[in-house]
Amino acid sequence: MKNNKDLNYSMSFPQTRMRRNRLKSWSRKLMKENILSASDLILPIFITDSNKKTPITSMPGIARIPLEQVSDIIGHADELRIQAVALFPEISSNLKDVMGSEALNKNNLVCRTAEKIKKQVPNIGIICDVALDPYTSHGHDGLLSDNPKDPEILNDETIKVLINQSIIQAQAGADIIAPSDMMDGRIGAIRNALDQADFKNTQIMSYAAKYASAFYGPFRDAIGSNKTLMGNKKTYQMDYSNSNEALREVALDIKEGADIIMIKPGMPYLDILSRVKSTFLMPTFVYQVSGEYSMLSVAADNNFFDRNAVIMESLTCFKRAGADGILTYFALEAAQILKEG
Ligand code: PBG
């Protein structure tokens, strides 16, 4: 047999009937090529330094959680066998400045939360985002040049800060450092810094192909950077018109030492996920982002379609496209559906 085309496809209808395998439920189950399980899921959690749980208007069903209440959601995730959580802070505006200084406070909200989770459930993976946007008054992921007319996001200067942000997060107990900032060269720099600080087993998940996407709108609402974001992120996040460029981004991050590659957003970018997985054969994660959650959730809340069914369909499609892990705000719901069989 030279290639797939030489497979015996000479049979055709009526001998071949594709519906034969689909006829019975047990048979459909046996034919499944991809199966979602709770251990594919990563739960993003919004934490807040205010003292009460606050709903996120643009993400119905999701709230920002104060540190004191984090143990409830972690306990729930653990019970449902979710293997990892990703932390995103909403900090009060008086802690934000142009430099994003609070990112380097060893006692900041993310560090305190990571320490607390590690004590409570040592076996759950903790993923910490590396980027300055929750901490900067201008809402950008990096430092700004002081050209008032057309401020540039400074690449190399930002990396110096991200290195320190990564180290303090690793010290606080982060298992996976997840740079989401899209600066060039940051993966290699962070890997070196982690190794030198004796964190050689701390994994790096690179947001390698991260597109400048309007689907992040509700997330920015959640962390409070929507109101303050100056301009857009198009000089560092990717143009949604491009696909080859994603392969170059991923190749560079692998070379620099990324352990896991991530594609983001998810549903509109399944082609990228599929290409990246089949090209590099790396552990490849996908992020079903806030706007995707809101879209599905709002339609389901209006009974435009069945909530549980679209959750399972959208997540299984990521697996089909090649995802090894899926960050999704539906993680708890999906794990519950899976548990109930
Ligand atoms: C921060 C970051 C963003 C998301 C994850 N990390 C937003 C952005 O880049 O503006 C988006 C996640 C989501 O929309 O769910 N760099």
Q: What are its keywords?
A:
341 residues; TIM Barrel; two-stranded antiparallel ribbon; 12 strands; 17% strand; globular
Would you give an account of this structure?
By secondary structure, this protein is α/β, with parallel strands linked by helices. It has a single domain, classed as Alpha-Beta Barrel (TIM Barrel), CATH 3.20.20. It is 37% helix and 17% strand. It is built from eleven helices and twelve strands. An eight-stranded parallel β-barrel has the order 1-4-5-8-9-10-11-12, surrounded by nine helices. Strands 6-7 form a two-stranded antiparallel sheet. Strand 6 and strand 7 (153-154) form a beta hairpin. The model has no long low-confidence stretch (mean pLDDT 96). Ligand PBG is lined by residues 129, 131, 133, 141, 180-181, 216, 219-220, 233, 289-290. Ligand PBG binds next to helix 6.
Report the count of strand segments: 12
Whole-number total of structural domains: 1
CATH class division: Alpha Beta
Q: What's the architecture in CATH terms?
A: Alpha-Beta Barrel
Task: Tell me the number of helical segments per DSSP (H or I, 4 or more residues long).
Answer: 11
The gross shape turns out to be globular
Strand order of the largest sheet: 1-4-5-8-9-10-11-12
Largest sheet: 8 strands, parallel, barrel
Q: What is the alpha-carbon Rg in Å?
A: 21 Å
